[in-house]
Amino acid sequence: MHTKNDAADIFRQLAEGVGHSGSPRFYATLVERLATILGVDHVLVADVTQLHQAETLAVWSNGGLLSNITYSLTGTPCETALGRECCLYTRDVQSRFPDDKLLCELGAESYLGRALYASDGSLIGLLAVLKNAPMQLGELANEILRIAAAQAGAELGRQKAEQALRKSEEVARESERRLDTLLNHLPGMAYRCLNDRNWTMQLVSQGAETLTGYRPDELQGNRLISFAALIHPDDQDKLFQEVQLAIANRGPYRVVYQLRHRDGGYRWMWEQGQAVMDEAGEIVCLEGFISDVTDQQESQRVQNAVVQVASTVTTQVGDGYFQQLIATLVKVLEADAGFIALLHTSPQGDKNVYGQATTVSMVVDGAQREQHSFALRGSPSEQVVLEREAVMHDGPPLLLPGTLLPTRAWIGRRLDNANGEAIGVMMVFYRQPLTTNAFATSVLQILSTGAAAELERRRDHRHMHQLAYTDSTTGLPNRVRFMELLAQMWQEAQQGKHGLSLLLLDIRRFKEVNDLHGHQVGDQLLVTVADRLAKISHSYGSLARLSGDEFALLVASTTPRDIGSLVEQLRLVVKPPLHLERRVFHLDVSIGFAHYPQDVSEAGELFNAASIALHHAKRRENSICPYSQTMRHALHRRQQMTERLSAAITEHTLELYFQPQVNLTSGQLTGAEALCRWHDAEWGWVSPGEFIPLAEERGLIRALGDWVLEESARQLITWRNQPGGELPGRLSINISAQQFADPDLTRHIAQLTAGVSSSAIALELTESDFMRDPDQAVEITHTMRQAGYALSIDDFGTGYSSLSYLRRFAADALKIDISFVREMLENKNDRTIVQTIIAMAKALEMKTVAEGVETRDQANLLAEMGCNEAQGYWFGRPLPADEFAMQWLTT
């Protein structure tokens, strides 16, 4: 939703855009401004000919102007836009109009078109905005397009009229009539006047009456009043000088000034015009256009006033804040006096009944006044409190409380605390009656929030201190207070030469509860956990909530053995089921802890050590982890590995190895699996079991996966171009869960493997990754199958697939996990699982591929069970591309 200030700025931009009327830049400026204002990718204005052809006048696309083109309207959305109503296609516009090549070239997803009409109602052009994503336009956007279309139509009509004028005298008269009609329907006043001090009007459009209240015939020739007499006295000389300067510079003039309406009120005008010269260079007349910009100007005045006040008081606090605020406010609003007053409740103590008010700061005739208390009843402040905002334009003379200043007009705004309760008033007073109050009321309304906040802070400083150091949800000390306690208790421990322990606790799966059940349930859960922890921790030390679901406990003078007992108590106290809103939650906590001086020597190091321990605790099944130096070294290695892996991906220093996949019946090669290998210059070979999980954790897996896909495609092409070297079957490539979360994955893979047929690629995803979002997985797998890719479910049997989803997956194969294959000869259960997976795959018309086959007996048993294919050391180890080709692809 746009604010009033936003709207004013938008229309100002639009006004500047159409301000180039008559210049070659008009259409170019218009399409550029519309693209910026509406946030669309493409805007075009076109002239529509009688042959059902469109000739573009300006085309803005993706941040720049394109060359103009001519195209047929048949079969385009522009054809449907040539009506009285706007034509909108919010999405899928290319599929609706497949013959429109321009839509495809621009990449447009949505389209909105408006026809442009001449003053006689004839169709002359069109205005279209397009976006490379679905489009939703509100009322403000539609109004902007309507105005832009009117202005563009007016400009195009004017141009066509000028062209017709040059053809013949008869056409010239008709063009003049059309231009006159057009001017009389514009939202403003077009004029032609003499360059004299009266701005004597020779020609005035019908819009003059709306703008000034006077009919055109009353202004022409100064019959009833001169136009200059309507200009505000403060603006007359300035306006004349600006116009004369523009004429001397042979350029157009653009001016803003106040104009008195016939009803006596002043309105803000924006005028643009230029001098018309004869052949001798003498001024014949001035021509231009005037529009009402009062709303925009008032918004700007309010903004400037607020900025002026805010910049004056921003460094002040307490009494200095209020004194500077009211002094600047009185000056900006041109008032004679003003005050900010604090309300006091009645003696009965009812918080909603106020008996008195005391000025916190008062300014009269530019001078500060002492504080003064006054009865609220019967005063203007009482009306402000009751109505929240009140204005007196002209009332009986009233003495300002505590002064002898007689006032006849005032404006007031109530100041509320955070609970919406009245705590004060802010008012300005005038000796003379007010003619308007919109400006002052807007300024007071904007500044009242800051004044109320400072008044509440002054009124209850202790409460503000509590907010600064206490967690509002649990009532425990917050992170700021905790860090102060840590520094204080560490100093005491250092001076007293005793120990200090820090425990960091994290509620496991709290984010999941928060996301599924909402923040209200999450906050209740936090409060309950805090209460449970406090029952144990109060006798040990200081408990605090650091953030989200993380708590901290500082314990002084305790041995590591005592900490172990405390940790177990904390775990047990959290574990009982928690009943909230008819739901039952089973909670657990991860706890990491460190000790001073055993583990660290500084307070900051203690917090860092406990954080490292908590990180490891979250990854452990028992959720408990004391700090050790090994953890710091491991964390350092992981950080180094992240940096080196990122560089290896970027610099293409990784390598692909290929492991053969064979048919268990014939022993023939049926394909291969691409496996990523990394040799670091310093560390040597880094295990995939170490760097691939790290890539997933640190956000590198997408880049790594893209490299594998590109490198696999490059290698397939290389083998294909070698005599007898093409890989039979498909090359299997692993896809990570993060890659699979992309709904556009199929198209992305096709781009990365350009030049390789989809029939040469099989994509593998682990069973657990499929089940993260099974509904999306079903949709993506079907898209992949339609594109020609084969799909395998890797490590099958280790996850928790739903058979109903497995039936819906468009998978070609199930890969039996190595953990079952390795023990199936000795372990009856594993053998049964393998047999079940094979039977299930046959029922679902999928093939099975066994992983990790290392012996002849395993291969024979798998063949007997009906397994189709296998891979493992028995058939061949993963090999670099050249060695693999030499051993397996040479004919």
CATH superfamily caption of the largest domain? EAL domain
Q: Strand portion, in percent?
A: 25-35%
CATH topology name of the largest domain, in short, is TIM Barrel
Q: Count all strands and give the number.
A: 38
Largest sheet: 8 strands, mixed, barrel
Number of helices: 33
What share of the residues lie within helices? 40-55%
Pfam families: EAL, GAF, GGDEF, PAS_3
Coiled coil: 158-185
Keywords: Coiled coil
Domain EAL: 638-891
Describe this structure in words.
The chain has 891 residues and is α+β, with helices and mostly antiparallel strands. It folds into five domains: 7-163, GAF domain (Beta-Lactamase); 186-292, 2-Layer Sandwich (Beta-Lactamase); 318-326 and 335-468, 2-Layer Sandwich (Beta-Lactamase), CATH 3.30.450.40; 470-627, Reverse transcriptase/Diguanylate cyclase domain (Alpha-Beta Plaits); 642-889, TIM Barrel (Alpha-Beta Barrel). Helix content is 45%, strand content 25%. It contains 33 helices and 38 strands. The protein has an eight-stranded mixed beta barrel, surrounded by five helices. Strands 1, 2, 3, 4, 5, 6 and 7 form a seven-stranded antiparallel beta sheet that branches. Strands 13, 14, 15, 16, 17, 20 and 21 form a seven-stranded antiparallel beta sheet that branches. A hairpin with an 8-residue loop joins strand 13 (337-345) and strand 14 (354-364). It is flat. The two termini are 69 Å apart. Mean pLDDT is 82; it is low at 1-5.
